[in-house]
C-alpha cells in the first residue's frame, strides 16, 4: 500500500517572516491617522484574521462608524505604513532552511496568507519564494479569509493534494481555527506571540518555537525524505 504523502500549507506573517509586530504598528499608525484610538495589544490579538472580522472588531470595541470609504482608507494607510517597514523585515530563524528541506525532499508546500499581495509580495521576495514555482494564495484570491478555511483549501487545491493530507503551519489562533474547519492538521509556532496553550486549544496537535524548531522535529509531523 502506497504511503500517503504529507503536504505543508504555511501562513506567512509570524510563521515564516518576523513581521507580526510590523503589521501591528502599521495598523496602529493607520488607525491614529483616522482618529481611532485602539491599544496596540488589542490590535496584536487580531493579526491574521480576515479584514471583515477585523472591521467588526473595530466597530465593536471603539464604537466608531466604519463606512466603506473609511475602511478602504484604513487598508491603504496600513499597506503604506507596513511597506515602509518591509525592507527591514527578515525571515524567522530556520524559515529558508525549512522550505529548502521540503523542496529537496520533494514534499509539496504552499503559502496561504490573510495579507494581500501588495503587502505580501515584498516579504515573499525577501524569503526567496519563487512565485512561478510555489503556490501562493493571498486574501484577494478568496472570498473569505481566516478563520474561514478558504485560503488553505485553495492552497491545497493549487498543490493538487487532499486537504486531509495537509498540515497547516501557523502562529495564530486564526490559522488553527481555519485549519480545523478545513479538516487539516494544525501545527502551531510561538513566533507570532501567541502562547502554547492558546494554540493547542485552537487545534494545534504540535507546537514548536519557530521554523527552525519545526525543522528539527519535522519527522514528528510527517516530513520524511
Report on the architecture of this protein.
With 225 residues, this protein is an alpha/beta fold. It has 2 domains: 7-18 and 90-221, HAD superfamily/HAD-like (Rossmann fold); 20-87, Putative phosphatase, domain 2 (DNA polymerase, domain 1). Helix content is 46%, strand content 11%. It is built from 10 helices and 6 strands. It has helices at 20-33, 40-44, 51-62, 68-85, 95-104, 117-127, 150-159, 173-182, 196-202, 211-216, and strands at 7-10, 109-112, 136-137, 166-170, 185-189, 204-208. Strands 3-2-1-4-5-6 form a 6-stranded parallel β-sheet, sandwiched between helices. Strand 2, helix 6 and strand 3 form a beta-alpha-beta unit. Helix 1 packs across helix 4 and helix 8 (173-182) packs parallel to helix 9 (196-202). The two termini are 18 Å apart. The relative contact order is 0.18. This is HAD family hydrolase. InterPro entries: HAD-like_sf (IPR036412), HAD-like_SPP (IPR051806), HAD-SF_hydro_IA (IPR006439), HAD_sf (IPR023214), PGP-like_dom2 (IPR023198). Its EC number is 3.-.-.-. GO terms for molecular function: sugar-phosphatase activity. Keywords: Hydrolase.
For the structure shown, list the relevant keywords.
single chain; 225 residues; alpha/beta; Rossmann fold; DNA polymerase, domain 1; 2 domains; six-stranded parallel sheet; 6 strands; 11% strand; globular
Amino acid at each position: 500500500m502506497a504511503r500517503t504523502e504529507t503536504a505543508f500549507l504555511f501562513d506567512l506573517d509570524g510563521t515564516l517572516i518576523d513581521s507580526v509586530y510590523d503589521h501591528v504598528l502599521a495598523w496602529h499608525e493607520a488607525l491614529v491617522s483616522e482618529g481611532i484610538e485602539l491599544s496596540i495589544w488589542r490590535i496584536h490579538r487580531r493579526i491574521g484574521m480576515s479584514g471583515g472580522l477585523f472591521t467588526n472588531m473595530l466597530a465593536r470595541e471603539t464604537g466608531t462608524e466604519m463606512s466603506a470609504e473609511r475602511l478602504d482608507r484604513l487598508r491603504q494607510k496600513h499597506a503604506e505604513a507596513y511597506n515602509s517597514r518591509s525592507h527591514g523585515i527578515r525571515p524567522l530563524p530556520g524559515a529558508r532552511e525549512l522550505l529548502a528541506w521540503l523542496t529537496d525532499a520533494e514534499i509539496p508546500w504552499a503559502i496561504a496568507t490573510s495579507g494581500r499581495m501588495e503587502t505580501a509580495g515584498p516579504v515573499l521576495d525577501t524569503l526567496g519564494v519563487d512565485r512561478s514555482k510555489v503556490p501562493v494564495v493571498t486574501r484577494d484570491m478568496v472570498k473569505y479569509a481566516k478563520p474561514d478555511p478558504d485560503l488553505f483549501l485553495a492552497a491545497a487545491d493549487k498543490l493538487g493534494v487532499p486537504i486531509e493530507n495537509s498540515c497547516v503551519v501557523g502562529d495564530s489562533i486564526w490559522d488553527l481555527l481555519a485549519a480545523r474547519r478545513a479538516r487539516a492538521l494544525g501545527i502551531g509556532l510561538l513566533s507570532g506571540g501567541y502562547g502554547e496553550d492558546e494554540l493547542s486549544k485552537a487545534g494545534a496537535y504540535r507546537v514548536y518555537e519557530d521554523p527552525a524548531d519545526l525543522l528539527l522535529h519535522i519527522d514528528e509531523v510527517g516530513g520524511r525524505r
